[in-house]
Design goal:
MPG, Formyl_transferase-like_C_sf, globular, mainly beta, DNA-binding, DNA repair, 8-stranded antiparallel sheet, 3-methyladenine DNA Glycosylase, Chain A, DNA binding, hydrolase
Length: 197
DNA sequence: TTTAAGATGCCC
DNA sequence: GGCATCTTAAAC
C-alpha cells in the first residue's frame, strides 16, 4: 500500500519540491505499527545565498554536511528540546533542504497520542515541526537516512487542495531572507502550524 | 574547555 | 513572557 516514491521525485527545483511534497505521505514503520502523516506544510532553505539557511555561505560542518549530498536524504537536527526533520534538496554540492513543518495524521493515531501525551488534542498532535517528529518517533538517529529506505520514507499521496504561500516562520534577524515567500501549506487545512514571528 | 545561540513548544 | 535542555560551532 505505502511504497517509497522514486528518486527522481526529489530531483527538481527546491521551491518546486517544497510545494510538491504537500499531499504526499511520510511513513514510519515501527515495531508498534505503521505511522503515516500527510504533509501539509513545508519551508524551503536554499544555501549558500539564503541567510536563514544553516548552509548560508556554504557553511559546511558535521551538521550541514548532508545538505551537500544528493537530494532525498533526511537532515535532522536538534532545536532546543525538539528534533526537526528536513528533506535534502538541490543537486549534489547545492546545500538546499525542505523543512517539514506540519502533517495531518493518517494512520497510527493511537501511537502518536502515546508519543505526544494523552491530553493533547488531535489538531495539536502534529501541527508543528517539533511536534510531528515526536508523534512519528523520528529522532536524530535518522540523520543521513535516505527517505526512499524503510523504515522511514516518503510515499505517493493522492493530491492536495490549493497551496498558500507566506514568509518562513521563526527566522529572526536574517535580513531580506525574512521576507522570502518560501513557506508553503495547504490552504484551510486545520493541521497547519500557527504562524509566529 | 567554555560559552552562546537556535528553522520550538509548553507552561505560567 | 519565561524556560526547558541538547547539539553544534566558534571563541578563548
Amino acid at each position: 500500500m505505502y511504497e517509497p516514491i522514486d528518486q527522481s521525485f526529489f530531483e527538481k527545483d527546491t521551491l518546486e519540491l517544497a510545494q510538491q511534497l504537500l499531499g504526499h505521505y511520510i511513513v514510519h514503520e515501527q515495531q508498534t505499527g505503521l505511522l503515516v502523516g500527510r504533509i501539509v506544510e513545508t519551508e524551503a532553505y536554499q544555501g549558500p545565498e539564503d541567510r536563514a539557511a544553516h548552509s548560508f555561505r556554504n557553511r559546511r560542518t558535521k551538521r550541514t554536511e548532508i545538505m551537500f549530498q544528493k537530494p532525498g536524504y533526511a537532515y535532522t537536527y536538534q532545536m532546543h528540546t525538539h528534533t526537526l526533520l528536513n528533506v535534502v534538496a538541490g543537486s549534489i554540492e547545492t546545500p538546499h533542504a525542505v523543512l517539514i513543518r506540519a502533517i495531518e495524521p493518517v494512520l497510527g493515531m493511537e501511537q502518536m497520542r502515546l508519543n505526544r501525551g494523552a491530553h493533547v488534542k488531535e489538531v495539536n498532535l502534529t501541527n508543528g515541526p517539533g511536534k510531528l517528529t515526536k508523534a512519528l518517533g523520528i529522532t536524530m538517529q535518522y540523520y543521513g537516512h535516505h527517505l526512499l529506505d524503510r523504515p522511514l520514507f516518503i510515499s505517493q499521496g493522492e493530491g492536495r487542495k490549493e497551496i498558500a504561500v507566506s514568509p518562513r516562520v521563526g527566522i529572526g534577524n536574517t535580513g531580506d531572507a525574512v521576507h522570502y515567500p518560501w513557506r508553503f501549506y495547504e490552504k484551510d487545512n486545520p493541521f497547519v502550524s500557527k504562524y509566529r514571528l
